[in-house]
Model the fold of this input.
Amino acid sequence: MSEGAALEEFLAQSRERVDSDLRDSLPAETEPPAELHRAMRYAVFSGGKRLRPGLAFGAAVAAGADPECATPVAGAVELVHAYSLVHDDLPALDDDDERRGRPTVHVAFGEATAILVGDSLLAEAFAQVARLPEPAAAAAASSGLARAASSTALVGGQVDDLAFVPAEADLESVTSIHLRKTAALFRFAVWGGGVAAGLEAAPLERLDGFGRAYGLAFQLADDLDDADLSECSILHVLSAEQARGRARELLQRAVREIEPFGSDAWALAGLAKRLEGQLPSNP
Done:
């Protein structure tokens, strides 16, 4: 099997694993309050690629562990991602009526329910990481998830993104928003997968470095793909060619971070190489 085919199979298995677990662990649609629980499942099972769970499982494999051990981390990061999208779409924030080809949660279920869906998914994410069997790992993952979702990371990045003024943009401010709003969850996914696998501090720092570089490169690729200068974008401060070069450098840095893991890091390295190959050439 080719490297590309092996990676696609790994990602498909990752999606199946996390989706199966979330279907079992989330409240049933018929459980009261049924409307809220229907909306929660609508938000979570919306056709997402499950890239962040794939990174968590890839980190566990890099650590030499069974990827199954990272399932609570994978579920948690996907729930926080889903919650952030539900809230981002609200009229008070990005005011989007459609996501992934269907009505957003506030359009389908009402604004009040959408707010409460986000609240519920965030709470459920912490229930997920609490399932890690080692108490120290569960405590570390809970703390790490709190940091990733906090006012100094995901939420703070969203606040600064809303306040973004293109005319005042510089490389530092754009990078700061991208690192918090986008890269924070990628960092948690990779680092958390290592925590679930029982890694010590030094290799966890390596995984965190991979997640930071990969997450920032992911957002640069998204900026290049959208080329929307009404939003916070690297294209306000760099040319398209400079942005592509910066993304490539970040992905190469990400691969260097995981070199000590050797061939066990094949899935993480493959994801970095795949993203590099997907960088838009004509934004």
Observations:
- The radius of gyration is 18 Å.
- The chain has twelve helices and two strands.
- Residues 171-196 form the longest helix (26 residues).
- Strands lie at 98-99, 102-103.
